[in-house]
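Lecture 7 notes. Example A: sequence first, then its structure tokens.
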Amino acid sequence: MKACVCNEHWNQWVPMIERRIIGAAVRIILDQGLMITVWDGEEVALSASVNPDDILGVIGDTDITIFNVQKVDGYMHGFIVFIHGNNEDVLSDHSIGIVLENIVDKIAKEVQST
């Protein structure tokens, strides 16, 4: 995944540790064949995407990002909440359920190992 994306605010306003965690989340979710809808705290910034550059490109304009994680058929597994400015605690909340809990566990393991 690229460090620099089309949204200048990603690099300007989102700290490196948050970029690592959110970048890992995007990759892990997409690697499982799932899609991400991004809500930026004000509106749906991107609907049902599998393009990592598009997803990362809409992050950084507000202080919150919520990923709605869904299957291609539209089945919603749940959500992950990122609150920007919390650095290593950027991943602030997530839905309860085996799919989301496994994703969050994988993110934590990957970030800890780097």
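Example B, a different protein, same format:
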Amino acid sequence: MFKGHAPKLRLHSSSGWRRHARGMLLPACASMLAVTGLGTVPALAATRTQLNLSSVVIKVATYPYEGDDVLLGAAGLAKTRYQVQYQDLASGALQTQAVNAGIADIGRASGISNALFAATGKVHFRSVATLKIGTSEQDTIVLKSSGITSVAQLKGKSVAYIPDTTPQFFLLKQLQAAGLSWSDIKPVPFTQPADGLAALLSGNVSAFATFGDVATAEQHGAVILSSGGPYLKGTLGALEGSYNAYLPDLSNPAKMAAIADFIARVNTSMAWARSHPTQYSSIVAKNTDQPLAVELSTFEGEEASGNSEVVPNVPAAVSTEQGYANAFISVGAIKGPVNVAGTFSNQINSAIAADEAAYEKEYPSYFVVPAYAKSGEYNTSAGG
């Protein structure tokens, strides 16, 4: 998944769809999370269905080939009261950059990319929902023919990674666990996962810390050197991310209503995909030109490691992101202090919760967790 692809814009009418990024009701504890610099809009949840959204357009940054457009289309939820434009961007870091610049209204991001962005002090977005996904397909890989069997053997070698997102974090942690530091390797950043994979397969780098394309790499002679999963579960017991919204949009009630509804549709579509793994994987396989067996195994592995969902913000998401920031500060990768709480907003929490409850009531069969994914059910005591 998450194959590299050139960015492009696609305008979807209320009746069309084209190409899911892997990757609930409002927890009572969510009200504890402070909204920084923004007032609440308690009337939004009550009036959202009365708002005329026909002239609203939201620009969504999403992953190529298997983004939110594919997810909503597969689940039959692409028809909306507003228009959606999709922009393909291959990583959460790139999606965050687009939202921060106002090129997109919303996009996904890992907690790592948000924490690193917060350190710049130039944040024009707010994390308005907490994303939780499984931690499989987050690994440092090497070619089997390289003879490298331990992270310690990476000392002095060129290691590719995707900057400002999950691989940068778990690679740092893997090096520390092996008694190495960032300066002990030759880091080679690639913004496009496909480019990093190409560098590994061509022998230009010795290892690649990546997400989503591990199964593809294994088909070409790569093996997993070290899993990033154990380092990514954090306080949520899952890979923590978010949906970020462009800050000026949070002063527009109609746009907020559209964003809340879109997020609820994504959560419902994630539930559909989990309960219809073969149907969903067949769509992704066609889009990515991969064997169905590979895509199905990858998807089921991800859901088994953590059920995908996007929910109103929970306090644990803030502490997880702060932990990411602190880790980078501790090794001098960024300068502190960094207060990630300032990048969160609970402004549409109640609207998201109400919309998600409505969709779960309308599509109860989607939310039945199949046996293969039960091991990935999150611990609700963690806030999810």
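Note on Example B: DSSP finds 13 helices and twelve strands in the chain. The domain at 9-133+236-382 is CATH 3.40.190.10 (D-Maltodextrin-Binding Protein; domain 2).
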